[in-house]
Structures are given as structure tokens and as C-alpha cells.
Amino acid sequence: LHIIGYEEYVNEPCVDRGVVVRSDDAGFAIDHSLHLLANRIGVETILSAYTLIGGKGMQIIEVRAKRDQIRKKPISEALKQELRKECYDKIEQGNAEAAVFDLVLSYYVLDGVEVDHEVDEKCTAALVEAHYTAFVGYKKGLDKLNESFEHAKISLEKLFVRPDALFSALSAGNNDVLANGCAILDMGAQTTTLTIYKGNQYLLNKVVAQGGWHISRFIEQQGISFEYAEYIKCHFGQASPAYIERDQQMAIPALYK
Questions:
Q1: How far apart are the C-alpha atoms of 26 and 143, rounded to whole Å?
Q2: Which of 126, 85, 91 lies closest to 109, judged by CA?
Q3: Residue 53: CA atoms inside 13 Å, Cβ hemisphere, count?
Q4: 172, 187 in Cβ contact below 8 A?
Q5: Mind listing the pLDDT tens digit for each residue in 199-250?
Q6: Which H helix or E strand runs over 23?
Q7: Distance between CA atoms of 164 and 93, rounded to whole angstroms?
Q8: Pick from 244, 102, 111: which is nearest to 159 by CA?
Q9: What's the rounded Cα separation, in Å, for the pair 110 and 201?
Q10: Which of 30, 156, 180, 213 gives a 20 to 30 Å CA spacing to 11?
Q11: Burial class (CB in 10 A: 0-12, 13-18, 19+), 212
């Protein structure tokens, strides 16, 4: 991965706890940021984008679909797509407020034998089960996100969910930590995501609607400005008092004169 440019634009708050609440403001921010980025990297325009999604309410659900082909037949791409769609429909038709952000294959069961890799038409089976991990959130949040890109007139190529992006990053490092099991805390501005992995699978995903922004606000309540609260948190903050090796002294301007 090579980063060739970075830009940001902050206007009126349009995202709350990882969810777009004002799509028109978010659309303007997307459009303006991409114009700045196009100028920085020397291209005329950027027409499409990818985005990472998480936010409050997101959780994982195990879901499966089954087909009896009567006799041993190749497992076609069409069959796999049918099984995948059935899993989407099971969740979204069962709850009008829910949307599937992403569906990640866990494993197949072919004639009673578990297979933990992708299958193709070279594989044959009569009874086919597909097991997926579904990342589910609020449909309204997904609709608002899509509206934001429509306002910006930018094509949204693909959504990535935060836990799966972390999984990919760890996998790329050839690290056996995912097989042995680990828990990852991913702290954002307004949400913190806990994901537990084991055996190269997702066991749990929990989003808490508090993040780094709330920590800064708590420090601010001690009578200092938010800017200095953010500075103290980023430069001196520790995850636990046990990690503090020595006291820190600093001069902070009075909030009120």
C-alpha cells in the first residue's frame, strides 16, 4: 500500500457516532475533500471512491443457506450467488430496520464435510451449505451514506467494514495471532469497536458509542480548553494508570481570564 496523497475537510458535524446524520453536509464534505485530493495528486478529477463503515449498532450475525442438488453436481457460481443472496434476504426481510453492510464467507459444508476455503466448479456435492458472517447495522445509516455520495456525484465503489479491514491487515502480516485468538479495540472519535478473532474467524463484534472525542470532553471538564484537552490526551494519555512511568508537568493557559 502506497499513500500518494491525503486531504481532509471539516465543516459542520454531519456524522454522529460513526453514522451519517446529514447527508447533504456529508456530500459537500466528500466533494470538497476529493477536489482537494485531486489537486494534490495532480489529476483532473476523482469519480469514484471506497469507504470504511462501522458506527453504532453494528454487530455480527452468523447465517447460513443450504441447497440439496439431489445428486453430486459441480458447485456453480450461480449456486454460490443464490446462497449468498438467501443469507442477505434472511436478515433484511426479517427486520425492516436492518441492512447487511458486508457478508464474509466463513466456510462451506459439502456432503457433511467442512471446507474452509472458497470452492469452484471443480468441487462437486449433493448437499451444499454456505456459512457466512454478516455485518449488520441500521438500514437508515446505510441509506444516509449512499445519499451522501449521491449529493457529491461520486460513485461509491465498495463498502469495507472496519473489523474486516483489520482482519485483512493482520492477515497480510502473515501473523498467526488470528488463528491463536486475539481481541482488538479500535478506538475512533465517537465509537470504540471490540472485535474478537479466533481460528481465523470472527467470534464477536461490539460497538460502544464512546470514543476519543468523549475522552477529550471529559478532560475539558477539568477547566481547560478542548484544544489543550486533545493535546494532553494524544501526547500524554495512557490506556491504564499502570503504564504511567512518571508524573508530567505542563503549563496550560487559563480557560477564563
A1: 13
A2: 126
A3: 28
A4: no
A5: 878 888 888 888 888 899 998 988 888 888 998 898 888 888 888 888 888 8
A6: helix 23-41
A7: 24
A8: 102
A9: 19
A10: 156
A11: middle
For residues 67 and 126, give the distance between their C-alpha atoms in angstroms, rounded to a whole number.
Answer: 8
- Cβ count within 10 A of residue 31: 18
**Which amino acid makes up residue 30?**
I
Q: Which of 203, 166, 170, 167 is nearest to 188 (CA)?
A: 166
Q: What is the pTM of this model?
A: 0.74
Asked whether 132 and 105 are in contact (CB, 8 A), the reply is: yes
In angstroms, the CA 238 to CA 242 distance is 9
Type and span of the H or E element at 196? strand 192-198
Q: What are phi and psi of 17, to 5 degrees?
A: 55, 45
Residue pair 23/37 in contact (Cβ under 8 Å)? The answer is: no
